[in-house]
Amino acid sequence: LVNRNAKRSRIYEWKLLIVMLGQKTSGKSSSSGNTILGEERFECGRTRTIQSEVRHGDVDGRKLIVVDAPGWNSSLSLTEIPERDKQTFKLNASKCPPGPNVFLLVIPIDCAFTAEQKRIVEEHMKLLEKRVWKYTMVLFTCGDFLGKRMIEQHIESEGDALKWLIERCSNRYHVFNNKERYNSTQVTQLLEKIEEMVEHNNGSYYEVEEQIFNIIREKQREVAERAEKRRKRAEEQRQEMKILIQGECDRITLYRLFPKCY
After folding, report:
1. What's the whole-model pTM score?
2. Domain boundaries, the chain
3. The domain made up of 2-207 is a member of CATH 3.40.30.10
4. Dist CA 7 CA 1 (whole Å)
5. Cis peptide bond prior to 97, omega within 30° of 0
6. Torsion angle defined by CA atoms of residues 162, 164, 168 and 169, in that order, rounded to the nearest 10 degrees
7. How many helices (H) and strands (E) does the chain have?
8. Where do the coiled-coil regions begin and end (predicted)?
């Protein structure tokens, strides 16, 4: 127990950095992000996430940064996805620098994990390179769908595609029960599994390549420049409007003073 607490204290010296990945409608925001944080931090019941959203929280004595990445389209292969979207997907890991401790690959239990879905997952994860699997854990949602079955029975009955995924993640997985969203025990158990993985990885994180950081810095510079241009333009428009209003006021004043001249 003392040794485990010592390990945990070392982990607590930094935040747990979590990136959630998965297809659209997998329940990353509602069934995962909010459950982990213990409150409604990610918006639900709206247009699906179109850009990464980052939330901070303190859970069970742990400081967390949780990133909800845009979900991928389960019907599109990588060749059908625009290059811009591929680059955006790669940038998800940069949202919690220096890099995530874990990628939670969110898989709903109430939908079959088919060979086609396996292919889509594999293609997207390849964008993050082979080393990403060292930091990946499957997070099953809709755990209530299991009924009295164990998750291991579900994995066994689903077939080769899901078995492949679990093996690829070195048998790391966890289940969230949607009907017990604010059951803190299931969150505590997930965080303990993440901590064990971090310890196994010697406290390392998925390091974002320098090239990607350069892309991010360039993008941030462009965004800042556009914002400055908008600010200057807005100021110019305010000045122009001020001059017009002042001119109109002067005209009205002159009319009142010298009505016969108008």
Report:
1. 0.74
2. 2-207, 212-261
3. no
4. 10
5. no
6. 20
7. 8, 6
8. 217-244
